[in-house]
Amino acid sequence: MIVPLLSVTLIGVVVAMRQSGSRSLRAGTGQVVIGAWAGFLLGAVATIVVDVFTGIGPWVTLVGHLGAYLGAKTSAEPATELTA
Length: 84
Description:
Blueprint: H1 2-20, H2 29-54, H3 59-76
């Protein structure tokens, strides 16, 4: 679990720094890291469920990290107001 601990957190930090356009950590970095962990959790759990039936073991980490990136990007985007 040490590798996902480092890699998913790093994904969140890098996405937050790229989104802010600077090399410094901004105030919303924690939110982006949490989004990365939420995405990793969703991607890994979904793949584990599929793995039970198909045996695609190595894909669990790949899909989990892809979910981490998508979760980080989603949480880094500014909220848009829905208008009717």
